[in-house]
């Protein structure tokens, strides 16, 4: 005997499909309207305005330090605010804290998982956070007792349902922002491990994030396998802007120092600059001879230079304003997986699948 | 231990992007008009047609992509590493030599992207052929793999041997030059797809992604779009916006150590930490560049501990120091522990907002009412509106006056401009690199000193 509910449910389903179709077409028309409005204002390119700017001379940057000690691919690194210490993590589960200036190792932690893809230094310099295939982000206070096992005081903070791809402390040691292969980003209270806010909107793995250096400091940008870079409001959890011009996964995003724009690096072998006020891409950094993907990007202090670490083992240095490549740096013997400029801009550090880290200046 | 993504048999998306790009280069290199000039190459007594030298490859890449020799060698090296070009002289060594060594283009049949995923059966046939052709021609690792395969696909072994014999028979009927070429092509293909142990695996691409994710609701982007069209100020012309980048770079250029160097020297280059010592958080006399930076924006002033200190002194003179104190207290709520929010909000109310409070801040009535209402149910962002109001008050009013004040001007005039350290006479003698106390150590020390140390 047929249940009387079934015809109703069928009608409901039809209605739902119609609503979805209607919403989809409305979304498409809004999109094209936005493009129209943007096109009206799109009267000049960045490199055109930069024509009158003086060109950059020859760049001489060399490896000044090589940090050896990891037993496998280096996947991630971060600088301490003291401008000389760094934390790095690797495929074999080891997380090491170095004084990069002397190349001494100061602390080492062995994580219970391999592929530690994310690590971050706390603003106070007294703790580090890391995670990867364990789907978690854990905070380790840095103990000065040489005999103490750092893992003893470990605090599990974030819990995702897939691998942790990136993590970053916010302005203090008390909050951590994470991104994950489960397609979400999340903000956590370190002390309690409580989830403060989650960010949904990516259609696939989120691979990277960066916090905005703004005066009211409430936004961050994330990039993912869906080729999108999304800007989020940390308070409400809403995605406030979205950019989709890359042709492949976005491996790295980094804000321009003023906070008005951000750069991204992708597997499509290009870096791009997106202006938040113009709400569009304003520059592409690419060359026909560059075939392999960009794993990580960062700006020099003034924002004039963009450094990209590539999967072809090199670092390309770009003139952000003119869009030209200033220099190519060789040295690593396998792909460059992570790149960060130091807090005072005196150097930048790279980590590579060749098991080493290098400091360039 | 690498996570073997090839075992899953799926197309690895990242590799496909690279393959497509490399194939584009290869096709361009073989273009009848603009491509490379190929010639016959002599290999011992045989003449191989359609070959080129390593030097030819490098020259062509240099010319066509406008790159220097080092970069060209690097790029060409990848074309060989990925099997698009293979060496004739030393077929086991997939390296590009910038000399007269002969190379050939790999036939598309043997491109890694064409024959994916790699077939175990094909590998077995390849090894069998080698084995039959010359007993003992298999390398040690190939012998091991051969026996492993023999065990694993034992049921089809007759087929494997039969195929191997057939292929060998067919190849005997070809000209020697063609035979050599085909052998090289096949060898190159297997060197890449089944590299010898210890050799760098060109196809190692790390973790597979994306991981199995359900497709997310397509309604989210719609949400974003609606927000976009409401919040973006589309009336700002692109020209104005682009100029901001130029202006920012110009303003900060002198402060960018990588671009302009830093005084007295870059610690990473000279091994001298003087630059860091002079620019420590709190110093008796700051450097000139640092004080100049405070004038770039209010945020620059506030993010520098010393700048904040100076600004506080100025505000005290003007009897408006409570504004900065209030702002700092609000920051502590926003970025502090969740558990301390309630008590901190109470403190702020007592000190800054309550009628007759000791350090009462001047907020407009609308914001004050909203804040007082919010305090009844305190949360992390309850002070946001009030904090922003005071921030912009300081930014628009006190900050510009501070920059014109004697306090700032005198700080600027007595600020240090360090002497550039001349490169040492004996550049080979490396300075001793001194270690510094770690931040964790400093925190421990101040804790152990206790309350007598006083607060910063």
Topology summary:
The complex is a heterodimer of chains A (361) and B (456).
Chain A: H1 5-41, H2 46-49, E1 63-68, E2 74-79, E3 85-90, E4 94-99, E5 104-110, E6 118-121, E7 127-131, E8 136-141, E9 155-159, E10 164-169, E11 175-180, E12 184-189, E13 195-200, E14 206-211, E15 219-224, E16 229-233, E17 239-243, E18 250-255, E19 261-266, E20 271-275, E21 280-285, E22 294-299, E23 305-310, E24 315-319, E25 325-329, E26 336-341, E27 348-352, E28 356-360
Chain B: H1 13-29, E1 39-43, E2 46-53, H2 54-65, H3 69-81, E3 85-87, E4 102-105, H4 120-133, H5 140-152, H6 157-172, H7 176-193, H8 219-231, H9 238-252, H10 257-260, H11 267-270, H12 274-278, H13 288-293, H14 298-303, H15 305-317, H16 321-335, H17 341-353, H18 365-375, H19 384-404, H20 406-414, H21 439-449
Q: Biggest sheet of chain A: strands, sense, closure?
A: 4 strands, antiparallel
Coarse morphology of chain A: globular
Radius of gyration from the alpha-carbon trace of chain A, in angstroms: 22 Å
Radius of gyration of chain B: 35 Å
Number of helices of chain A: 2
Mind summarizing the main beta sheet of chain B?
4 strands, antiparallel
Order of helices and strands of chain B: HEEHHEEHHHHHHHHHHHHHHHHHH
Question: Runs of chain B with pLDDT <50, length 5+?
Answer: 1-11, 213-221, 227-231, 452-456
H/E series of chain A: HHEEEEEEEEEEEEEEEEEEEEEEEEEEEE
Organism (chain A): Neogobius melanostomus
Family (chain A): Belongs to the WD repeat G protein beta family.
InterPro entries (chain A): G-protein_beta_1-5, WD40/YVTN_repeat-like_dom_sf, WD40_G-protein_beta-like, WD40_PAC1, WD40_repeat_CS, WD40_repeat_dom_sf, WD40_rpt
Pfam families (chain A): WD40_Gbeta
